[in-house]
Amino acid sequence: MDGKKRVRLSGAEYRKRAKEKDDKQKDTIKKTRKLDDFFGKPSTDIKDPTIEPTLDVHSSSGAPSTDDSAVSSSENTLVDVASISKKQAEDVPLVPGVGVQPSPPDKELYEISDDPAKWTIDEFTRDHICKNGANQNIQNDFPNSERIYKDKVRQLSRHLFERQLLNGEKVPRKWLIYSKSTGCVYCGPCLLFNGGESQFDKKEGFNDWKNSYHRVSSHENSPNHKLSVLQMKERSNVLGRIDHALTMQLDEEINYWKNILKRVVACVKALASRGLPFRGHDEKFGSIHNGNYLMSLELIAEFDPFLAKHITRYGNPGSGFTSYLSSTTCEEFIRLMGNKVLKTIIMEILTAKYFSLIIDSTPDISHVDQLTYVIRYVLPNGSPVERFLKFIPNTGHKSQQMTDAVTSTLIELGIDISNCRGQSYDNAANMSGIYNGLQTKIKEISPLADYVPCSAHSLNLVGECAAESSQEACSFFSLLQELYNFFAASTQRWELLQTHFTVKSLSTTRWSARADACKSLRESWNEIHKALVTIENDTKQKRTVICEARGIRLKLERFETALMAVFWGCLLDRINATSKKLQSVEIDITIVIELYDTLIHFVGETRENFDEFENKAIKLSFVQEYEKDFRRNRKRKLLPDETNTVRNLETDLEDLLLSSEINVAA
Question: What is the domain extent for residue 199?
Fold first, then answer.
């Protein structure tokens, strides 16, 4: 400002400058070629009415006139249509996709006014406007648009014909047309195709200038307006417009965003199909914490210049800008893909008609109890499939609550529960109870829904009960977990063990984990023992670590431990193989019975191989005797009222129990 005060112009000076600006603009318009100059006039010497007039459409310039002088006496600023005889109109073929004649046969001269209030809405008018466009009449000062309000007199502003985008760019509103006769504005596409749904496409037009910006923006984003614009565009493509370049530009813009969305969909589908997380700590391109989704787009952009250019232009625009790269787009595509997959599964179920239910409850990582909903059915080619439908959170553990959740979900998906022919749950009382369990309540609704307990779960319960029946077996599995915890607690100990072998952790539900842990101990028995001895003799270790290593080593050196490792290693391998087979989708109940029979037969044969297990344990262990054979029996101090006979009976009973445990384990 340099300390100078801004001088405000007077009203007369404002009007003077505005007049100079208008005169300059009119002078420029007069020097511009008129639209009529690009079309040849029909010759008056032609006597044969069947000869069509020649149009000169090969001119190099094509700027339409916006001067009032270019408006003809009939107020037609569009292309003048030459006289066409009735015979010509009858010979004109139908326009593909429109199904109407481009000009009515009963009108030799048909002129389209540039005033939308005077349009006669028929097929010819629609074709003409779609092909040649319409004059917006924004070259004057809108003198007839004045409207008296309580506070002031308002009139149409030229700024209403422009739309400002969020990025600051201004684009013209080509659809908005001013009527010089009524002083109102109209929506050209809606006036032609919508038929009076709003003020913009009614004969009286729109002239509420006080709320004009809000009303115009609201109409512009309405579904009816968008549908009318699309109809006008499709009709224009069929007829062939003069502004074909603008149509091509619009198509290029559509294809541009389609190509972007194809790449986005590919990334979303790849990540979702593998259950990988999408979002990171931030959503910025170039950040190392932006998650798998943006990382995938950056990886593709390294080999795709098109996507790289788009990311450079729209990568980190912030909120309010369209880029189709944000997490909102991801969530929408995931929802659409999920709905599509669910609809496909439902169609397969309805085609198969009969199905079975598989229900189980488990907490997720956030400790929210979820009911897992799975349906099993047979495809038309005869292949059985199991499809996960959804998680139902917080349904409760009572049988009636789960029954309501199961039935309401089937009703929501449009599946008839009367077509249910099977149920399979775990052995919990609320699921499998014969009086008040879930399977009983489902059978009351659908009597043909036979209940079959989960075979893999039943086998797991049998193995767990068999292991807990023996004290030596419980001590052995505790030793396996103690080994894993000891070596996993320190990176130094784990590194020492890695040079030899790796121990495995146990699992309370999967016997495959116990089989792997038992196998790793049996195959690396000597190496693990050497690692324990090394830690025990290391004077740099803490005394607690040395004592812990010594305790584990002493347990490992027992003959009973070696016998348990050999015996349970053989038995768990077979149980693990059977459990995996029972969990396969293709299995049927006949094969399940056969697997049960073979497993029972194998356990029966194992009872006769105790000597073989002992011989293997002798080779594996560092001792060849049971602990009870060389360990001194502990004698309890006699109380005053007891005799030696009572103590001898207790000792004999302990020996009997110990021998029975060994036989049971075998």
Answer: 69-241
What residues are paired with 385 via a beta bridge? 377
List CB contacts of 109: < 8 A, sequence separation 6 or more. Answer: 81, 83
Domain co-membership, 264 together with 167: no
Alpha carbon distances (Å) from 613 to 7, 358, 404, 553? 109, 40, 53, 22
CA dihedral 356, 362, 365, 370 (to 10 degrees): 60
pTM beyond 0.90, yes or no: no
The CA–CA distances, whole Å, from 401 to 129, 350, 395, 407, 437 equal 63, 26, 6, 10, 11
Residue 1 lies in a domain: no
Chain centroid, CA 470 distance in Å: 50
Alpha helices in 524-643 (DSSP H): 525-536, 543-556, 559-582, 589-606, 610-620, 627-630
Q: How many domains does the chain have?
A: 4
DSSP 613-630: HHHHHHHHSS--S-HHHH
Helix or strand (DSSP H, E) at 412: helix 399-413
DSSP-derived letter for residue 206 is B
> What residue type is 153 in one-letter code?
V
C-alpha distances (whole Å) from 151 to each of 147, 148, 154, 214 are: 11, 8, 9, 19
Residues of the chain short of pLDDT 70, as ranges, are: 1-7, 31-110, 196, 238-247, 498-512, 627-666
Alpha carbons 580 and 511: distance in angstroms, whole number: 10
Question: Encoding tokens for residue 457?
Answer: 């779960």
